[in-house]
Amino acid sequence: MKNIGIINRHRRMIPWIVYFIILTGATVLVSNRGGAFSYVLFFTILLYPVAALIHIGYTIAFLKIYQEVDGRLLYKMTPVDYQIFIECAGPFPMAGIKLSALMEVTVFGEDFTDKIYTLLPREKVKFNTIMTCRFAGAYTAGIGKVSVEDCFGMFGKTYDIPIPLRVNVLPIVTDIASRDINRLYTEVMNGLRSFRLDRSENYLGNDVRRYIDGDSINTIHWKNYARTGELMVRLPEKQDSEMVNVGLITAGEETSIEDRDFMLEYTVSFADWFARQKKPVRFIYYSGKIKDFLVDGYDSFQKFYLEVIPEIGRESRNIPEEDVIGETERIGGMAVIFKEDEGELRRIDR
Questions:
Q1: What per-residue confidence (pLDDT) applies to 240?
Q2: Which of 76, 130, 193, 253 could form an SS bridge with 187, CB 3.0 to 4.6 Å?
């Protein structure tokens, strides 16, 4: 890599070496022979760098780039129709334009980034191809940068396009979470892990005790009072629950696109397993505030996949981990946490 950098620096010096040789020759010519032609040639060569810089500034100011795909909600590794327009919006021609794609996240059906484009005034060039996004999540795809050079390659400027193509890519469903799910249920069945849901006054059991000042009137066993005249209250009953609560903790701006892709694929695969088994699973996540969503069948899974997953994919803030954990524990049932920066599921010990 170091040798390649040295070679590239040497290559960038070649146009300057050639320029100074030509400038030296023009200086010798105008000194020895004079004449209108010699002076025009000399000043043309001398002022070329200024003209080249003006041309680059003009191109940056008047080059317009537009990108379009069929919808902003895409699917990972699924080709979609893609269009890009480049337009010269100024009164003069422009040249030396080269487009740079975000190849780490985007794959094109046809490579149009290896060409150098020249545009006439008000000319618009359109390209139609297909684009495939390699990762799930919300990010910038397509063309990300533009390079502008003069015709001899002496000067150049690479800059971000003013209006990037922002997409939200849905993950694919795999069996990536099946092993963890089977492990959780194996622990429950073997008695290594129990999970119960504490239900309050709405789920009163048969156990009773004497009434104490401050007890809710709703807990009084009125039938027993009518029969014996003694105030007794019914106690809440602990009932087994198959509910699994998954707290999703995103890593915020520190996350890599690969980590976000893995988390989204894991989450949607986890939800798909429970939907197919018709078992309830609740996801607790942050999107402006702490939210939760219950998946217990195909219909709720579809809504989770199309509406909730994009919300999780957009989140870039660092969220308070203890808030998500606290809400996950509060709901009841088996509480587990998936941390994006760790990339694995872990239980919360109650």
A1: 47
A2: 193
